[in-house]
Design goal:
- By secondary structure, the chain is α+β, with helices and mostly antiparallel strands.
- The protein has one domain: hypothetical protein PF0899 fold.
- Helix content is 24%, strand content 31%.
- It is built from two helices and six strands.
- The strands form two sheets. It has a three-stranded mixed β-sheet, covered by helices on one side.
- A hairpin with a 5-residue loop joins β3 and β4.
- α1 packs across α2.
- The two termini are 34 Å apart.
- The mean pLDDT is 90.
C-alpha cells in the first residue's frame, strides 16, 4: 500500500512545481524507481492516474525508468550488479545483500534505492 502514499506525494510535487512555473498543463511525468525501493511500477502508475484526475496533470504521459541495483564490495572491490531476486516476501522482510564475487556482506549500495521525479513536461 506504500505505492499510494508515494504516488500521492509525486502528484502533489508535480502539480506544485507546474503551478510554480506557470504551467497550464502537465503532459509528461518521468520517474526513476530503483528495484530496492520495492515499489510496483504498475501500481504507482495506476495511483498517479487516479490521483491526478481533475488536475492539470490529468492525462499526463507517465514514464517509469527502472533502476537496477549496483553495489561496491568493500572487501574485494567488486563493483557492479548484485544478485537480487524480486520476491513478494521482501515487502514484509528485507533480503540479504552480499557481494556476488566473495559473498561478503561488507558492501555499499550505489544504485537501486532511487525514487525520484527526473523531470516533468508542461505546457505554458
Amino acid at each position: 500500500m506504500h505505492e499510494y502514499s508515494i504516488s500521492s506525494s509525486i502528484v502533489k510535487t508535480v502539480i506544485a512545481s507546474a503551478k510554480d512555473n506557470n504551467a497550464s498543463k502537465v503532459i509528461g511525468i518521468n520517474l526513476e524507481i530503483g528495484d530496492l525501493v520495492f515499489l510496483n511500477p504498475e501500481q504507482v502508475e495506476f495511483w498517479l492516474r487516479e490521483l491526478s484526475k481533475g488536475t492539470i496533470a490529468q492525462d499526463a504521459k507517465i514514464r517509469i525508468k527502472k533502476i537496477l541495483p549496483r553495489i561496491k564490495c568493500l572487501d574485494c572491490s567488486y563493483e557492479g550488479r548484485m544478485r537480487f531476486e524480486d520476491n513478494p516476501l521482501y515487502h514484509i522482510c528485507s533480503p540479504s545483500f552480499f557481494c556476488p564475487e566473495c559473498n561478503s556482506y561488507n558492501i555499499e549500495i550505489s544504485k537501486g534505492r532511487e525514487c525520484l521525479i527526473s523531470n516533468i513536461e508542461v505546457l505554458a
